[in-house]
Amino acid sequence: MKITCISASNIERARQNSASTHACRIIQEMVLGQPDPAAEVQIVPLLDYELKSCRMCGKCFETGLCARDEAFNQLYRQLTSADGIFVVCPHYAPFPSKVMILLEKLEEMLYLKSCADPNYRFTLWQKPVGIIVHGGQTEEALPYYRTALLEPLANALASVHMDVIGAGAEWPRGVAFGIQRILPPDNSIFVTIEHNWAQIEQRLGKLVENVVETAGKHTAGSIG
Q: DSSP string covering the chain, please?
């Protein structure tokens, strides 16, 4: 089983220490702790991908790839080859720009094909995806993160035929988390942010379990 976990943080100074990537590492540990010994988890930091916005040139209709953006093509191949996907997305304004580029290109690729064939099934058809969103406010902001980030992202991924997996009745379309506290900067313009990672890990547990279970069923079905 191959799992791809996208870290959507785009903060240069944070890199491997960003909250998005930290959450991806927690997911990686959880997946590798599942009964399937053949599981492989790839963490994909969007920070390393210089994506270019879509011009709707239409060339992807024939090739299935973007004519101008090899970074997107690399990312797209990783998504299509995965059995299950996690997207960890921070709150920016409200979405990171690279997430918007990714969603836009997936939407346009599907749209062109669907115009030609109303019964067309996209390459991401029924691929299970677990969504985790977060931001720089405490847990009181979770209703906002759900409305501004989680629901729009879930709708966008569902619209490109992906199977949005939930974590139970409280979190039916993914999960969200906030911070524990902000510490004043020490000779820097950037504050230090602390998270309650034990609480976050507990919140992620059911979502990871459900995505892995669904991906396993798909994998078994394709083999059978």
A: -EEEEEE----TTTGGGSHHHHHHHHHHHHHHTSS-TT-EEEEEEGGG---------STHHHHSS-SS-HHHHHHHHHHHH-SEEEEEEE-SSSS-HHHHHHHHHHHHHHHHHHHH-TT---TTTT-EEEEEEE-SS-GGGHHHHIIIIIHHHHHHHHHTT-EEE--SSSSBTBEEE--SEEE--SSSSSPEEE--HHHHHHHHHHHHHHHHHHHHHHHHHHH-
The rounded distance, in Å, linking the Cα atoms of 13 and 214 is 35
Domains (ranges, CATH) in the chain?
Answer: 2-223 (3.40.50.360)
- CB count within 10 Å of CB 202 equals 10
The yes-or-no verdict on residue 222 having pLDDT over 80 is no
Bridge partners (DSSP) of residue 42 are: 4
Q: What is the pLDDT of residue 116?
A: 96
Distance of CA 92 to the CA centre of its chain: 15
Cα gap 68→57, rounded to integer Å:
10
Token duo for residue 207: 């979502």
- For residue 215, CA distances in Å to 1, 20, 27, 43 come to 8, 22, 14, 17
Token couple for 167 = 């974590």
Lookup result for tokens 């491997």? 16
The pLDDT, as a whole number, for residue 158 is 98
